[in-house]
Each structure stands twice: as structure tokens, then as C-alpha cells.
Write a structure and sequence with these properties.
The protein is of the alpha/beta class. It has two domains: 108 residues, Periplasmic binding protein-like II (D-Maltodextrin-Binding Protein, domain 2); 115 residues, D-Maltodextrin-Binding Protein, domain 2 (3-Layer(aba) Sandwich), CATH 3.40.190. Helix 2 packs across helix 9.
Amino acid sequence: MVLDFWQQHWNRLFLILVFAIMWTFLFEHVTCAHEIVLEGSNTFSNRILTYTIPHIKSATGVDVKASPTDTANCIIKLVREKLDVCAASVSLSYILDKGNLSNDNNKYQEYLITKHIVVPIVNKDNPVNALTWEQLSDISRGNITNWKNLSGNDIEIVVVTYKKDEYTRQVFNDIVMNKRSYTRNAKIVESDEEMVAFVSSFKGAIGIVSGHFIQHSPQDTKIIKTNEVSRPLSIITRGAPNQQLQAVINFLRTSEAEKLFH
């Protein structure tokens, strides 16, 4: 009888142990299925994911984790089939061209989330309202140093920009300035907030800033009209996105999400 008792006892313990192991495996499987790690563009992470991750979870039930590195390294992993998705700050066509890659059978797919638009800003009291790319380049390089040469007031131009590795500066430098150097006299700031505050305080200042940011915090600045300066912020996948990733993409393309971007 004692043997039968212990046999039944151990049988129950064994069943409980098996159930616990199965439940743990199932829980981990379900959790992983609803978690997405978005590696890639720092700009995508800083200007989109930083402000939307809690809202993505509420809207889709998907946990998104940002893993900012850079677009190039992420794309290399995508091509080598070590990743299925990348956050990118350049277009798919640019990636295919630079990497000499084919896209047979739509192997790589691009989902545009928004554009990183760079706008030039000046003090709100500056009478100048529009500039060409050539004029913006000449100002930034120090070839034009007084607003009177642009039908403005007789006041010295103060050029304001970011550190060399900041994405907004890189976009402006690549597209408008053709990668030529800024004037040595350029004032360097470290954030959009500092940029807007500086230009608001100095009547001769001109700077650049994210279009999304300036819409929410213009202070005493105004946007100078010019041709659009932008780069795409996209999600690039190898093959079609799974159900969870598609839900995230769909949410990020809503007007609700766009209001959160910086």
C-alpha cells in the first residue's frame, strides 16, 4: 500500500512537472510571436519609435523593441538572411543600386512610414521668405554673409547647424550643399530644441530643423520656402511581413501615429 501511495504521488508530480514545462514553452512562444525587434536607422528609432512604441502596443498588441544601429549594417544582415526586417533612412531603390542587388520576385519590400523633411528656418522678423538651394548652399558655406545681399535687412548672417554625424545635417549637406563644407563660423547646436531657441533669439540666424518638430514648436521662427529637402523613413522587409509586423506598419501609417513623430 505504501508503494502504491508513493507511485501515485510521483505520477501526479510528474504530470504537474510536464504541464509546467509545456505551459512555460507555450507562454514563451506566444510572447515571442508578439514581439518585434526593429533594428536599423538611428533616425527612424529616434524620431518615430521613441514616441510611438507605447501606442503601438495599445493599438496592435505587439511589443516593439528598438535596436538602433545604422541602416547599412542592418541591410547587410537582411541580405545575408540574418534579419527579416530593417528600419531604413534611405530608399530601397538606393540600396539596390548601391549594393548592386536584384529584386527578383519582389524579394525586398519597402513600406514608407514618413519622410524626414528638413526645412530651413530664420527669425520670424526676417523679411526674407524664400531661398533657392543655391542660395542656401552659399549661405551655409559662408559665401553670402549679409542678409542685404538677399533683399533682406543689413544684418550679418549667423549660420546654425548640428554636429557632423547628425542626420538632419547630413541630409541637408548631401542634397542642398552637394557634400561641401560648412563655413568655419557656423554655430553648432546639439538638438532641435536648441536650434529653434537660438534662431528665435538672433535676428540674423538661419538654421535647419526637422519639419515634424518645427510644426509643434516654432517659437519665434518661420520656415523659409524652398524645394523639398527630404529622405524616406521606411520599413524594409525580406519577403512579405508577417501578421504582427503588418499590424505595426499599418498603425505607423495612420494620422494618429504621424502626430507623434518628431
